[in-house]
Amino acid sequence: MEAYSKIGEPMKSLEIFREMQEQLGSTNVAAHHKIIEILCKAQEVELAESLIIEFINSNLKPLTPSYIDMMSMYFSLSLHDKLELAFSQCHEKCRPNRTIYSIYLDSLVNVGNLDKAEEIFNQMLSDGAISVHTRSCNTILRGYLSSGEYVKAEKIYDLMCQKKCDIDSPLMEKLDYVMSLSRKEVKRHFLLL
Questions:
Q1: Which of 79, 132, 180, 185 could make a disulfide contact with 136, Cβ separation 3.0–4.6 Å?
Q2: pLDDT exceeds cutoff 80 at 3
Q3: C-alpha angle with apex 36: 94 to 102, nearest 5 degrees?
């Protein structure tokens, strides 16, 4: 399957997968993960969706790697509604991890749903099994800076300093500017007193 995928023949990969199912009577978890990954990379949305349903109905586990592939495909195609549905399904059917949460957080920030993004970020922050990392911190920081939520951006900056997270260069430039405005405002306030 992988060989056909590498030469840009995802349908041939699917044929191999179907032949395996016919000859063996069923397929294993690794084969399901691989074909879903191949179809997602090829952005074959409907085929990938039908195969993940088939995978879920097979009662094989774990499902998480296939949900990651599906959500990544939806993200790259800007299909936020489908991504959100996949996140909810993943939450019901398996234990979501940091990668699942991060993809969802990226999508929420991209569509400008900062309230929900903040809620998801706070869930990540409070759940030690998921936790936040450099990518998720930069994502929420980008959201706050682009929407003018500068006080919240400064709080995330403080958290990132605490956790020793690297800040993306363009965000640092904007944050430096925002913080310089904040310092000027504080100085002006004290001068008026």
A1: 132
A2: no
A3: 50
